[in-house]
């Protein structure tokens, strides 16, 4: 099929939920994607932070292929050695006590919400159920996760939304305090608001928030769906802030390209869920866990993490000299670019035409390259971006 035929079939058979760029990708290797016409693209998106090891990494392909030829799926009613191996690795790397595997970031966040509410139900009764999230946050598109999202633009069409959520201003501890009362069971945050425009929280705000939670036995939930799995130069972004939350959610880069989510909890919450209180058919699937084991065996290495930080610094240093760049922000290889002309969407579309895949978030450009991207690939991608921004 040629590109026009692909577009025609997409328009006829798929729901119109995505504003697609003009590229139909069919293969890739490392940070290079190839479209149906054989055109190559430098990928600064990694599938929105998913392909942490790039396209078709040899070790990742081998791990997935071998598992697919061994056992591809089994019910969670039986023990799965490959799932248990992934759980052990993840708990050891994160410093958390237990994990539940699911299929996406939104599902991981749904699990976190249920876990927080059951903890408070068991200890304080059913009236202690409210969760505070932050204005400008994004936690997913399922109904509870969508309600937890602190952006009015998402709170439409799907009424009635879930009860029990309130929104406080990010980096405003006084506003948070006005929402804290005896019926609050959790505070749910992203340390860097990704979809909200790559907005890092201020360290002092995070520290004060953590202190409030500890003082009042309010659970601190941190959504690391986008920031986790070494994206910010540490295995968890929490490490950059020096905090240990009660609950952490992960997804995206954890599977290296296969759908996976994970909800991790500390020892205080390790026995809150009992058989039947939560579950999933596909969560912790053997193929997914084999992929996660390969990712985890590589991305938490100190040398690997150091390279993520260095590459992120290198990209930001180069961007500082670009035309039409007012500001860059983020950590590691999670980078937002504020343009002088406020024309991020136009720049992103033009980049695709010129062989560079790049993201937007709100009114800025967003970069989430594969963690394994080479300096040569970085330079080629930045050269394309610079030429587009000079136009």
Model description:
The protein starts with a helix and ends with a helix. The chain is an alpha/beta fold and 391 residues long. Strand 8 and strand 9 form a beta hairpin. The mean pLDDT is 98. The longest helix has 20 residues. Strands 4-12-11-10-7-5-6 form a 7-stranded mixed sheet, sandwiched between helices.
Biggest beta sheet summary: 7 strands, mixed
Percentage of residues in helical conformation: 25-40%
Distance between the termini: 33 Å
**Helix and strand element order:** HEEEHHHEHEHEHEEEHEHEEHHEEHEEEH
How much strand content do the residues show? 15-25%
Chain-averaged pLDDT: 98
Approximate shape? globular
Number of strands: 17
Q: Residue ranges: pLDDT <50 for 5 or more in a row?
A: none
Radius of gyration: 21 Å
Class from secondary-structure proportions: alpha/beta
Count helical runs. Answer: 13
Q: In which order are the strands of the major sheet placed?
A: 4-12-11-10-7-5-6
Features:
391 residues, seven-stranded mixed beta sheet, 13 helices, 38% helix, 19% strand
Short description:
By secondary structure, the chain is of the alpha/beta class. It has helices at residues 3-13, 46-49, 58-68, 81-94, 105-124, 143-148, 173-179, 203-216, 237-241, 286-299, 302-319, 344-353, 375-389; strands spanning 25-29, 32-35, 40-43, 98-102, 130-134, 165-168, 184-189, 192-193, 199-200, 219-223, 247-250, 261-265, 325-331, 334-339, 356-357, 359-361, 364-367. It contains 13 helices and 17 strands.
């Amino acid at each position: 099929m040629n590109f026009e035929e692909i577009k025609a079939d997409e328009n006829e058979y798929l729901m119109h939920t995505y504003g697609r760029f003009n590229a139909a990708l069919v293969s890739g290797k490392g940070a290079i994607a190839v479209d149906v016409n054989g055109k190559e693209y430098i990928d600064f998106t990694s599938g929105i932070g998913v392909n942490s090891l790039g396209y078709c990494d040899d070790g990742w392909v081998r791990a997935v292929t071998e598992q697919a030829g061994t056992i591809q799926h089994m019910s969670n009613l039986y023990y799965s050695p490959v799932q248990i191996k992934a759980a052990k690795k993840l708990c050891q790397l994160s410093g958390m006590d237990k994990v539940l595997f699911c299929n996406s970031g939104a599902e991981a966040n749904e699990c976190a919400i249920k876990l927080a509410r059951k903890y408070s139900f068991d200890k304080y009764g059913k009236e202690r159920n409210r969760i505070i999230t932050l204005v400008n946050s994004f936690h997913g598109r399922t109904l509870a996760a969508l309600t937890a999202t602190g952006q009015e633009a998402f709170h439409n069409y799907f009424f009635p939304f879930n009860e029990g959520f309130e929104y406080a201003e990010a980096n405003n501890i006084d506003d948070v305090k006005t929402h804290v009362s005896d019926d609050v069971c959790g505070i749910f945050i992203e340390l860097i608001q990704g979809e909200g425009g790559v907005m890092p929280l201020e360290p002092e705000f995070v520290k004060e928030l953590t202190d409030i939670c500890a003082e009042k036995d309010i659970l601190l939930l941190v959504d690391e769906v986008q920031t986790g799995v070494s994206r910010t130069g540490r295995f968890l972004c929490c490490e950059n802030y020096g905090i240990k939350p009660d609950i952490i959610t992960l997804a995206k880069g954890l599977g290296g390209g296969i759908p996976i989510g994970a909800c991790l909890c500390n020892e205080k919450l390790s026995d809150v869920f009992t058989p039947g209180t939560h579950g999933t058919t596909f969560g912790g699937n053997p193929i997914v866990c084999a992929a996660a084991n390969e990712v985890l065996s590589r991305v938490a290495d100190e040398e690997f993490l150091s390279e993520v930080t260095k590459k992120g610094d290198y990209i930001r240093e180069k961007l500082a000299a670009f035309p039409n760049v007012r500001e860059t922000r983020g950590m590691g290889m999670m980078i937002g670019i504020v343009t002088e002309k406020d024309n991020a969407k136009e720049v992103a579309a033009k980049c695709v035409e010129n062989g560079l895949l790049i993201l937007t978030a709100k009114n800025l450009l967003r970069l989430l390259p594969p963690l394994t991207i080479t300096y040569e690939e970085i330079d080629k991608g930045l050269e394309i971006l610079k030429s587009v921004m000079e136009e």
